[in-house]
Amino acid sequence: MMLAERAPSHFRPSPTLRRYYAALLARFGPQGWWPARTRLEVILGAILTQNTAWSNAARAIARLRRAGLLNLRKLRGASQADLEICIRPAGFYRQKAAAIRSFLEWLDRTCGGSLHKAFLRPPELLRKELLGLRGLGPETADAILLYAGGKPFFVADAYTRRVLARHAMVSPRAGYAAVQEFVHRSLPPDPEMFNEFHALLVEVGKRCCRRRQALCGECPLKGFLPPEARVNVQDAAALTSPAAP
Ligand code: SF4
Q1: Is the overall model pTM greater than 0.85, yes or no?
Q2: What is the topology classification, in CATH, of domain 15-31+154-238?
Q3: Non-local CB neighbours of 4 within 8 Å, separated by 6+ positions
Q4: Smallest CA separation from ligand 1 atom 3, residue
């Protein structure tokens, strides 16, 4: 638990978001994220799942495993061609191979090649450094920080943005940083809760709060939908909804 690690001075806990979390957990149960065996696997998965379904990233991870490359030393020594062949199922394989290389070079240069040392760095500094690497945007950096490092950075992905926007908690046009800041202001900086809440929001986004169809009648969050939002949500396709399946 790292509650004291990063508590913003303006932090005010929100009972509302806690109730969302409790309702989702009661319906769907613990999600057991991130589906990975090691920190390196989490990091690779976070890069490989960019712009594709997790199933494609998982196929790429399985190929890396079969090739013996889920190991820092062997991954460093792999040829560009071998790496690209393994990760091809995840799409954008050239860019993703470059992002993996960029991460490994930074790890060797800055942390002596040690993931343990990397996650001992001050979290805000570490985030800034990750964001400076080729091919790592905020969602990937935060997934690495939260799921591989246990650092309290909420992954404010498109599912989260859609649910919160449809419930009029953030603007439909709010970007990643604004939505993340809203969550950080509303919940204690608890990595375990951020982990589970993010996974649960993905689940509700896939099952009920779909991009073109909001199945509010069967959704565990239907009791929280503000009356003024109901009309808009019923015509969900008309909403400016953040993209996600
Ligand atoms: S499906 Fe409806 S009730 Fe559920 S999160 Fe989306 S807008 Fe809210």
Answers
A1: yes
A2: Endonuclease Iii, domain 2 (1.10.1670)
A3: none
A4: 222
Distance (Å, rounded) from C-alpha 59 to C-alpha 70?
Answer: 13
Give the position, in ligand 1's atom list, of the atom nearest the Cα of 222: 3
Model confidence band, residue 235 (pLDDT cutoffs 50, 70, 90):
low
Number of alpha carbons in the 13 Å side-chain half-sphere of residue 239: 28
Alpha helix stretches (DSSP H) within 67-225: 72-77, 80-87, 93-111, 115-118, 123-131, 138-143, 158-166, 176-186, 191-207
Q: How far is the CA of 162 from the centre of ligand 1 (A)?
A: 9
Q: Is the CB of 169 under 6 A from ligand 1?
A: no
- Which homologous superfamily does the CATH classification assign to the domain defined by 39-148? Hypothetical protein; domain 2 (1.10.340.30)
Closest CA to 244 of 136, 135, 166: 166
Residue range 34-43, pLDDT digits in tens: 888 899 999 9
DSSP state of 214: B
The token pair at 137 is 């945007």
Residue 138 near residue 177, CB atoms below 8 Å: yes
List, in order, residues 6 or more apart from 1 with CB less than 8 Å away. 190, 191, 192
Distance separating alpha carbons of residues 123 and 54, to the nearest angstrom? 26
